[in-house]
Specification:
The protein has 12 helices and no strands. By secondary structure, the chain is mostly helical.
């Protein structure tokens, strides 16, 4: 929907033009002839500050254009004005970008901030966000907190087979490190059952499969 993307991109400027036009019509013909134009101007301007360009950011991230996504994120000058669910998504996206830049501390702080805001959009992203937090903790060497986040992610619900497989593979690896081999095998079996197709996950399954059958338990 290119027209919608264009509207979101230029929504503020369109609102300002409409506001100027409304003021002109108000002066020339009175308030009521300009009322609809005022209303459209307010909708555009408030939409810019309350909803932000989230759709544009997500589109850029989906095609892997992180530079464009960062540029759009940086264009949000007043994130505190975003409505709470949108603000939550904003901080989660910033956390994802921090992860890409290997800023683990910053990523963890931003993702926690996003989760703390709550709202229906946050509930949808709660599982994946907690999974990412778990992986962050594991990268930092905090296995206990990482395991806790991953279990929470599974309970919160993960959106697809790839996320579920990744979560159970992480639990499998944690159990292997704890030498709880029976649990590791169960989690590995669960991970395989999701039939993930992401190359990284498929490769991880192949690597673990080489030696997990030789484990006791």
């Amino acid at each position: 929907m290119k027209w919608l993307n264009l509207f979101i991109k230029f929504r503020l400027w369109l609102g300002l033009v409409l506001l100027a036009l409304a003021i002109y019509v108000n002066v020339e013909a009175g308030f009521w002839p300009s009322f609809i134009i005022y209303l459209l101007a307010v909708i555009c301007i408030l939409g810019h500050f309350l909803l932000g360009p989230m759709r544009l950011i997500q589109n850029a991230m989906e095609v892997g254009d992180m530079e464009e996504a960062k540029k759009i994120v940086d264009s949000i000058k007043f994130p505190g004005l975003l409505i709470k669910p949108i603000r939550s998504v904003y901080y989660t996206i910033q956390g994802n970008m921090a992860m890409v830049n290997q800023d683990l501390e910053g990523a963890e702080k931003l993702m926690k901030k996003g989760l703390s805001l709550g709202g229906s959009l946050t509930q949808q992203a709660e599982g994946p966000t907690k999974l990412q937090l778990g992986m962050l903790c594991i990268q930092k060497g905090d296995m206990k907190q990482g395991e806790a986040y991953i279990r929470q992610a599974i309970r919160s619900g993960l959106p697809d087979s790839e996320n579920n497989a990744a979560a159970y593979l992480q639990l499998c690896s944690i159990m292997m490190n704890k030498r709880e081999f029976r649990a590791a095998k169960e989690y590995f079996k669960k991970a395989k059952s999701f039939k993930a197709t992401t190359p990284q996950i498929v490769d991880q399954i192949k690597q673990i499969e080489k030696y997990i059958t030789r484990m006791p338990g």
